Amino acid sequence: MNDKVLRKQLVSLLEGENAHISFEKAVADLPAHLRGVKPANLPYSIWQLIEHIRITQWDILEFSTNASHQSPNWPDQYWPSKDGPASEQVWQASLSQIKKDKQAFIALLNDTGKDLFEAFSYGEGQNLLREALLIADHTSYHTGQIIIARRLLGNWQS
């Protein structure tokens, strides 16, 4: 398999919009008053989904680059306790961190000195390819939930 082609496809997968809308578009222009609202019959708000994506992506990035990284406790430390962000600044910081960490992971993928298939010297056989697929899968799953929540809150047009 052509390593360069695989890396390009993984970056495309992480950036979204192949088979679904991107995370960035899913959260764009969400009114502040809806960020912490839990739609009827859903156990989470859009804020909680965004923070969960941020925490999980950060954890995967750290795991992929730091052998001594200790993951948060599951599930409590992967989900925020509050339904909504404390401020606009907190909201924007979360979105910025998601973008920054995604770009850092993409930089790992674009580093041809890193073997996509080689198991990390720690963990249980994970490798960079597996972690890239995990981020993409996890983020796209929760991006779909964000869109569903926005629809239920009457704030999505497609």
Can I get a quick summary?
InterPro entries: DinB-like, DinB/YfiT-like. Helix content is 54%, strand content 0%.
Describe the model.
InterPro entries: DinB-like, DinB/YfiT-like. Pfam families: DinB_2. Residues 23-146 form the DinB-like domain. The protein has 158 residues and is an all-alpha fold. It has a single domain, classed as Four Helix Bundle (Hemerythrin (Met), subunit A). The protein is built from five helices and no strands.
Fold topology:
Layout lengths: L2 H13 L7 H5 L18 H20 L22 H23 L17 H25 L6
Helix pairs in contact: 1-4, 1-5, 3-4, 3-5
Pfam families: DinB_2
Protein name: DinB family protein
Organism: Rhodocytophaga rosea
How many E-type strands? 0
CATH topology: Four Helix Bundle (Hemerythrin (Met), subunit A)
Helix count from the secondary structure assignment: 5
- CA distance, first residue to last residue: 37 Å
Q: How many domains make up the 3D coordinates?
A: 1
* Main beta-sheet annotation: none
